[in-house]
């Protein structure tokens, strides 16, 4: 690839105005053509044989008041999950140290809350500070945040906040009724405004149509700035939840979704998240080929099983994949990507304004 071609692919990159037809056309490409395009764009933006590794710990498990129809932690369904209160700070720090020793560069802490209560905030802020002191990047997922809570987390040094959009706006009402799509977008706005990096993706295999996968990816790619981290989850069917027996998604459709996430958000980390334990090594390799470059490593993925770290290491060895350490993730490059995307968006708005017919003012 010439340097000029390489730069063109990088710069072609950041758009926030993807249309439904454009995204649909990507889904309709022959599988190999799509994979080739995604891999080419991936190579222009990332070290192709490197995968970022995060570890996830559930810091408060179960009894969640939300009714997400896929979730083992929702208090609305009987899934037989053992509930746990907020973990002690000391315990969280020990787990973070373990994760670091096993090669994780980022430690994600998840709580099954609608949103954190004020009395919980001092504990979670202290967790962020102490985990950061170990030299790990920190990420939290605590439900909806107010602007003030996002600010507090930013001041404590939180690097990433995870808040997924889950599915398309059209399908959303079939999956969650206790909070709206707009609530989610508000939280994402607060997180971005506080200067915390955004981790935001969705779940496929919820019984949605391809149009919904298109809608989800459009929403993510057309946010004011692309999330730095985009988890693509494959539904893990949990007995006792309303989606416990939904039909399986074609694995190739999952790989397509990963590839299109890579094409639409070329400078974001695309993460293989929940559902990886149901994928064989060959399918995971296809996902890496399609541009996935981040995984959760070992232990448990909140409350769903995740392949053991040793299996992951073996797979990486077989594929010649290296893991990325925290220092390799350049904040500057990510910040520049956001700035560039916002600049392009402004340019787009200016151009549209300039071209728009003048309205008559009564
Ligand atoms: S996905 Fe999160 S918000 Fe929804 S029920 Fe599960 S823990 Fe609660």
Summarize this structure briefly.
The chain has helices at 3-12, 20-27, 31-45, 89-101, 121-133, 147-156, 169-172, 181-193, 210-221, 251-264, 281-289, 309-319, 331-355, and strands spanning 50-60, 106-111, 137-141, 160-162, 197-199, 202-204, 229-234, 269-272, 294-296, 300-301, 304-305, 322-324. It has 362 residues and is α/β, with parallel strands linked by helices. The model is unreliable at 326-362 (pLDDT under 50).
Can you walk through the features of this model?
The chain has 362 residues and is α/β, with parallel strands linked by helices. It has one domain (25-340): TIM Barrel (Alpha-Beta Barrel). Helices cover 43% and strands 14% of the residues. The protein contains 13 helices and 12 strands. The protein has helices at residues 3-12, 20-27, 31-45, 89-101, 121-133, 147-156, 169-172, 181-193, 210-221, 251-264, 281-289, 309-319, 331-355; strands at residues 50-60, 106-111, 137-141, 160-162, 197-199, 202-204, 229-234, 269-272, 294-296, 300-301, 304-305, 322-324. The strands form 2 sheets. Strands 1, 2, 3, 4, 5, 6, 7, 8, 9 and 12 form a 10-stranded parallel sheet that branches. α6 links the parallel β3 and β4. The chain starts with a helix and ends in a 7-residue tail after the last helix. The structure holds iron/sulfur cluster. The site of iron/sulfur cluster has 8 residues, from loops.
């Amino acid at each position: 690839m010439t340097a000029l071609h390489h730069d063109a692919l990088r710069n072609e990159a950041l758009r926030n105005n993807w249309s439904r037809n454009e995204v649909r056309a990507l889904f309709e490409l022959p599988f190999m053509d799509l994979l080739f395009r995604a891999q080419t764009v991936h190579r222009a933006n990332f070290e192709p044989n490197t995968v970022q590794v995060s570890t996830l710990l559930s810091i408060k498990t179960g009894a969640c008041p939300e009714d997400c129809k896929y979730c083992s932690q929702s208090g609305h369904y009987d899934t037989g999950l053992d509930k746990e209160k907020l973990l002690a700070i000391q315990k969280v720090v020990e787990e973070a140290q373990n994760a670091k020793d096993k090669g994780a560069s980022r430690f994600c802490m998840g709580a099954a809350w609608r949103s954190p209560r004020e009395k919980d905030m001092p504990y979670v802020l202290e967790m962020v500070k102490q985990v950061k002191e170990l030299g790990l990047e920190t990420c939290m997922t605590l439900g909806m945040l107010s602007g003030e809570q996002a600010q507090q987390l930013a001041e404590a040094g939180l690097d990433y906040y995870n808040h997924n959009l889950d599915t398309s706006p059209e399908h959303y009402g079939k999956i969650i009724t206790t909070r709206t799509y707009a609530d989610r977008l508000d939280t994402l706005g607060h997180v971005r405004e506080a200067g915390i990096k955004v981790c935001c993706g969705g779940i496929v295999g919820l019984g949605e149509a391809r149009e919904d996968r298109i809608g989800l990816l459009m929403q993510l790619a057309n946010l004011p700035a692309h999330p730095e981290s985009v988890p693509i989850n494959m539904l893990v069917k949990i007995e006792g939840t309303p989606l416990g027996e939904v039909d399986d998604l074609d694995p190739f459709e999952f790989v397509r979704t990963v590839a299109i996430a890579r094409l639409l958000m070329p400078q974001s980390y695309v993460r293989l998240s929940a559902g990886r334990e149901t994928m064989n090594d060959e399918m995971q390799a296809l996902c890496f080929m399609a541009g996935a470059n981040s995984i959760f490593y070992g232990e448990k993925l909140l409350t769903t099983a995740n392949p053991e770290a040793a299996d992951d290491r073996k797979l990486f060895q077989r594929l010649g994949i290296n893991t990325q350490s925290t220092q390799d993730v350049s904040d500057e490059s990510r910040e520049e990507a956001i700035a560039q995307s916002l600049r392009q968006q402004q340019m787009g708005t200016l151009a549209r304004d300039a071209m728009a017919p003048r309205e008559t003012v009564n």
